[in-house]
Amino acid sequence: MADRLSALDASFLYVETPTTPMHVGSVAIFERPRSGFGYRQLLALIEHRLGYLPRYRQRVLQVPGHLARPVWVDDVDFDLNYHVRRSALPEPGDARQLFELVARLMARPLDRERPLWETYFVEGLAAGRVALVTKAHQSMIDGIGTVDLGQLILDDTPTRREAGDDIISWTARRPPNRTQLVLDAVEEAVRRPGEVVDNARSAVRDLANAAEKTLTAVGGAATVLRSVLRPPPSGPLNAHVSGGRVFAGVRTDLDDYRAVRARHGCAVNDIIFAVLTGALRQWLASRGDLLGSEATVRALVPLAVLDPDTAEFSPAGLVNNRVEPCLIDLPVGEPSPVLRLQHIAHAMAEQLDSERSVAARAMLKVGGFAPATMQALAARAASPFSGRLFNVLVTNSPGPQQPLFAGPARLSEIYPVVPLARDQALAVGVTSYHGSVYFGLNGDRKALSDVDVLAGMISESLEELKGTDW
Length: 470
What we know:
Number of helices: 15
Distance between the termini: 63 Å
Strand content: 15-25%
Mean pLDDT: 83
């Protein structure tokens, strides 16, 4: 039987356009050991781990006449060197140059004739460091059958692999021909006739129906109704998305957030959003926007929650757990950083039942570098939403506080890259790792050319909050 894409997975292919590619990514910077860590070693590491991720060697095959959703088939011409690419910055490369490269790489849609992922090994960074830039389509990563590649190539201790070491043997199966694809679709139509109508829907209607279903689960019906009746304010964050991208990363100290938490008695997650709110306030003011005291920016915030029938957050592939999107109004008009923090803490508490929300320490039980997968799941949860309901997408997933390694190279920095939706000029990914909190700001090149200005204001906003008492 055909390995058919789910309706949700297929929707990410249907709604993708040349200017809004539906892939998530990350920028990981590594310290290269004296023994070295090169492109060939990375290839050997990924080749070894691909045995655990069969989806990464499969491509999407369309059914003739769109009689059914597409199917996953083995790529008989799979070429690891095509997916793991080599790049370099002019030495000594700095963060600005790296982020400019990331922006250009993320703007390019993935090749649908091949498995939907790419990894770039970037050399030339100052101090002999290297970077890995990853891209994976949202149709692939469901957190159950397939996780982000970064979750498997990172280890708690340094490892060393050479080409051919312990490779799990794999032989591609021949894909079905057109006749078999049609016969499978007809057979499924006989068994489930309602799907014939579903499969004939356009991409726009598929997305609209998905959004309607999702809305019923977001923070309660009352919250959704208020959001629909009171649309978000217009502004520079809602703009027609072009084909270009800009990217900026910000590294902050986790101890600073813990100090604010100890003083004000709120969650680190609340502080992160208060810091982002302060940065957005300064950035809007720098653009000449006159902010009244009641001015807000509406954020779509996907949060991990427990399934009602599950006792605890599951480390086994995130099974039986969900990421639900919530709408939070960030009080950018409030001049007091403490009052901004209070407002956000209250808004967060309203969104999810405390018994169902997943604590950061529970999420860290997931094996590997789970934030990469959690960021992908968060982007999936946000995709069905109309741009008329929010101004900015913000995802936050905590990460491990011990060092991680890709082969022998130690991970020193990690920045999420969250995709833009239509008419959304900014998406912010946040994660923590080994004593730091990292912000990844992905923006539209035309609407948000000053993303580096906004990035600089994140550190300023954190300093403002640190220096404020009740």
